[in-house]
Specification:
heterotrimer, A alpha+beta, B alpha+beta, C mainly alpha, A: 6 helices, C: mainly alpha
């Protein structure tokens, strides 16, 4: 039928035999797949297990020991964000600084995890969920209260600023001890 | 914007040879992105093609001037968004070349594993969408498409465990990589790769000796060797036309010289030859992944400390151009630095941009149905074309 | 109750038509689930859990509520009439199919001829749709359609004539009766080849992959149907599936013995439906396994391969019948 691009053309019977064989092979592959288990995950009835490092919705966390807000308003996340979706105002206080306002425009966020990477106090973290669909874009303009609430609502991802930085260039032992990371704590749970 | 061909006055005669100007795209199920082809048809035969690009232009090269070396790698994945790892690699390799920054061996091997897994995933998508175009969204094409996507999802699951993201990773940083392997990952990658190798046999059974597939792809879209070399195509297109050029062999980067793999070359130059080249590349990528995982050295994953501030990476004045072998061809990144934290100028050499230039030479003379077969075998991604 | 025969026929036609429409709707669900399982996924699931039983109803409601967009530059009368002209022959073919001995709208003594002739009329509606839409894609598709369907109607007719020759009658119920001893598909060589040619010609005459170049979603984006939305689109879809089901019924009747099967005679229609669905599933299985081929290759297969083959087959069947002598079955 079409010219074969320089390849030898088989004779009529050989080509017919090839055609029948090809049809049989293709249809047997489809038949075999008919009896395999479907790979569909019936979201939202069934949730897929998310890996530990999943980059989901952003949230603000509280400090583990003191229970205070972890964010010190240093604005490093604001400067590094490529689409510039974070806006922070610092509030100076006696012992440490806080963030007066913290807005994050989730509808424009790229989920690149750079803000998490640079945060010195592990304040901004990502959750293991993306389930925040809204019908109004203004619902995705997250303010500080909303971000803290999200942090308590979903499960946080393994990746926090200090852990990411430690992974990229292992810290010197003195600094790690001073930070209080026990030797096994910084490691991820095995899969 | 080309103005010449679109303003012709078409004389409608009754001789049966009047020409019809038909627009294929930019919204079209088979244009692989936003791509407009103005086809001049005589009956069913295409006699002229006028390609219009630019619908996905997002000013990457200007963005590169406003974002620092720390911020841009996650954006770089959006040029070739189907094979994001290789695109990021081009950018950070260019920066490392200017600054003469060493990359630790472990990071190099991790980059190789990521790039080759990405090539497998990208070729899965290529095969699926090509068969979808040729076979119909309601037909055998969709079946092959869903099988390929099922396998691609497994690779994306591995990437999700590695970086947290499934399509646009931000895996590379200047000096190495941002993420290390989680525990148990290499075992999972080996299982994935074994599984995909077994399934490849199924795809070949469905397509390889299939007469329907052969008549659609053999003799269609022939790129002669001279044309390939003259236009400057790269990747599977040039390897399907008889030139054995692979950047991984020509200029080994990121310790590719340590691995043993075959660069497939076919001489026929038609769609079927390019299909064979990519199917062999599947298996060779699997081979490289296994070798890299076997020989993965211990050590740090970056020669620079973890990113703590936006202007952390500064390279001295200079310029650098690096090329990597992306899934579609040679991706190049040219950076001119003026000593600061941002490049002075960033230029992308998109593989698909040069590959598309071959279309006006090979499409005329074919039927309309062949146009989609050719587009699929050229496998453009418009993030690279329009940047 | 004695009704005039015309009223009796009208009632029968009404019942058959309604049953047919419901069957067509649920056959689309069957196809979607079958195709989904072949592609490692679940088909329709949520509407009418757990297996999408209400999906056809939902689709029908959706299509009825959709906006009916008519392009301003289209040829009004041709564009609006095309779905109807396409649908009517596709439904009319069911008039001659008997579902059990004595059950059917009209068991004409030229039943097969009527079926084949009327089913070819759909091409008029198809071309009207393509022309009236005033759209280059639709026009291209309509041209291809005329080419393809005309080319494949000939082998289709010749393949369908083989059982007619073997049975000696064009009346559908006598063809089934003639298969009491042996189904026609089981006749050595002649039967199987005829059935194979019938299946291939069916695939092509109904624009099923690998011969669906005229709808070619990936090039021509729905071909001649591209400008139709809402209820007109529903009519065209209905016509296509009804035609496919009709030729499956014909195939089951001509080759697979119709309502013959073990068990009481009342089970006849059940067997008939089962055989029809078997043919339908085979066609679906082929559809979801292959890529399509180009229109010139399709035409080459028809004129260079299928037509000579079916002509030769008809000749051979004629010889078989002549050698068998009069009165043989």
């Amino acid at each position: 039928m079409a010219h074969n691009g320089g390849r030898p053309t088989p004779g009529f019977w050989k080509e017919t035999g090839q055609l029948v064989g090809a049809i049989g092979r293709a249809m047997s592959v489809t038949l075999r797949n008919l009896f395999r288990k479907p790979v569909t995950v019936r979201y939202p009835d069934v949730q897929r297990p998310y890996p530990d490092r999943f980059r989901g919705i952003l949230a603000l966390a509280y400090d583990k020991e003191t229970g205070e807000e972890a964010c010190i308003g240093c604005r490093l996340c604001e400067y590094i964000c490529p689409p510039q979706v974070i806006k922070v105002e610092m509030l100076k206080a006696a012992k440490r600084n806080f963030a007066k306002t913290f807005t994050l425009e989730l509808y424009a966020c790229e989920f690149c995890e750079l803000c998490v990477q640079v945060c010195p106090t592990d304040a901004i973290i990502m959750m293991k969920s993306f389930d925040l669909a809204a019908s109004d874009r203004r619902d995705l303009l997250l303010d500080k209260d909303r971000l803290h609430a999200l942090g308590l609502q979903f499960e946080p991802s393994w990746a926090t600023g200090n852990r990411l930085r430690d992974m990229q260039a292992p810290p010197k032992p003195a600094r790690a001890e001073a930070r209080g990371d026990a030797k096994g704590e910084a490691k991820e749970p095995a899969e | 914007m080309p103005e010449t061909q679109t303003k012709q006055v078409v004389e409608v005669g009754y001789g049966g040879n009047e020409r019809l100007m038909m627009n294929m795209g930019p919204q079209h199920p088979s244009s692989h992105g936003v791509f407009r082809m103005i086809l001049t048809l005589e009956g069913e035969t295409v006699v002229g093609v006028d390609a219009v690009i630019g619908y996905l232009h997002r000013c990457h090269e200007k963005l590169g001037e406003t974002l620092t070396y720390v911020q841009y790698p996650s954006i770089a994945s959006k040029t070739d968004y189907v094979a994001a790892m290789t695109a990021e690699l081009a950018y950070v390799a260019a920066v490392e070349k200017i600054g003469k920054i060493e990359v630790p061996r472990r990071a190099q091997y991790l980059r190789v594993v990521a790039a080759e897994l990405q090539r497998i995933a990208s070729h899965c998508l290529w095969l699926g969408t090509w068969c979808l175009d040729m076979g119909g969204a309601l037909g055998g094409g969709a079946t092959v498409f869903l099988y390929c996507i099922r396998e691609r999802e497994m690779v994306l699951d591995r990437f999700e465990e590695l970086t947290g993201a499934r399509l646009l990773y931000g895996f590379h940083q200047v000096g190495g990589t941002r993420y290390d392997m989680p525990p148990g990952w290499d075992k999972k990658v080996r299982e994935t790769v074994d599984f995909i190798e077994a399934r490849l046999g199924e795809y070949e059974a469905m397509l390889e000796d299939n007469t329907f597939f052969r008549v659609r792809t053999q003799g269609v879209g022939v790129i002669s060797r001279e044309l390939a070399e003259a236009v400057g195509v790269s990747g599977p297109l040039i390897r399907g036309s008889g030139v054995g050029y692979d950047v991984r062999r020509a200029e080994p980067y990121s310790s590719y010289g340590d691995f043993d793999f075959v660069v497939p070359v076919e001489t026929a130059g038609d769609c079927y030859a390019r299909y064979r080249v990519r199917m062999v590349e599947f298996r060779q990528s699997i081979r490289i992944v296994r070798q890299a995982l076997d020989g993965l050295p211990e050590g740090p994953i970056s020669s620079r400390p973890g990113v703590k501030s936006v202007g952390q990476v500064r390279v001295p004045k200079g310029e650098g151009y690096t090329r990597v072998e992306g899934a579609r061809g040679e991706i190049g990144c040219y950076i001119v630095s003026d000593g600061g934290a941002k490049p002075y100028r960033l230029k992308w050499r998109g593989a698909s941009f040069s590959n598309l230039a071959v279309l006006p030479h090979i499409v005329p003379g074919h039927k309309v149905a062949d146009v989609v077969a050719i587009m699929g075998s050229v496998d453009p991604v418009f993030g690279e074309v329009d940047r | 109750m004695t009704l005039p025969p015309a009223a009796w026929h009208a009632i029968e036609a009404f019942v058959v038509l309604n049953a047919l429409l419901v069957l067509v709707a649920y056959v689309t669900l069957l196809e979607r689930k079958f195709a989904a399982r072949m592609q490692s996924r679940i088909g329709p699931y949520y509407v009418g859990r757990p297996h999408g039983w209400l999906q056809p109803v939902a689709d029908a409601l959706k299509l009825m509520m959709k906006e009916d967009i008519v392009p301003t530059a289209s040829d009004r009368w041709v564009y609006n009439l095309a779905p109807i002209v396409f649908l009517v022959p596709c439904l009319l073919i069911f008039a001659t199919i008997p579902f059990a001995p004595q059950v059917g709208v009209a068991d004409l003594n030229i039943g097969v001829l009527f079926f084949l002739a009327v089913s070819s009329l759909e091409i008029v509606g198809l071309f009207m749709g393509g022309w009236g839409s005033n759209n280059k894609y639709a026009l291209l598709s309509a041209m291809r359609a005329v080419n393809q369907i005309i080319s494949y109607d000939l082998p289709f007719i010749f393949a369908a004539l083989v059982p007619v020759l073997l049975a000696g009658s064009m009346q559908m119920s006598s063809i089934v009766a003639a298969q009491q001893g042996l189904w026609f598909v089981a006749y050595p060589v002649v039967g199987q080849l005829a059935f194979l040619a019938f299946l291939v010609a069916t695939l092509a005459a109904e624009n099923r992959v690998p011969f669906d170049i005229l709808e070619a979603e990936s090039e021509l984006v729905a071909g001649f149907r591209v400008e139709y939305s809402g209820m007109k689109f529903a009519l065209i879809q209905l016509g296509e599936y009804a035609h496919m089901l009709g030729t499956s019924f014909l195939g089951a009747l001509l080759f697979l013995g119709g309502w013959l099967g073990p068990g009481p005679a009342a089970l006849g229609p059940v067997w008939f439906l089962a055989k029809t669905l078997l043919i339908f599933l085979v066609i679906t299985w082929v559809r979801w396994s292959f890529v399509r081929i180009r229109v010139d290759q399709i035409l080459a297969i028809s004129w260079k391969l299928l037509l000579p083959a079916t002509l030769a087959l008809l000749l051979a069947t004629g010889l078989v019948v002549a050698l068998r002598g009069p009165g043989g079955a």
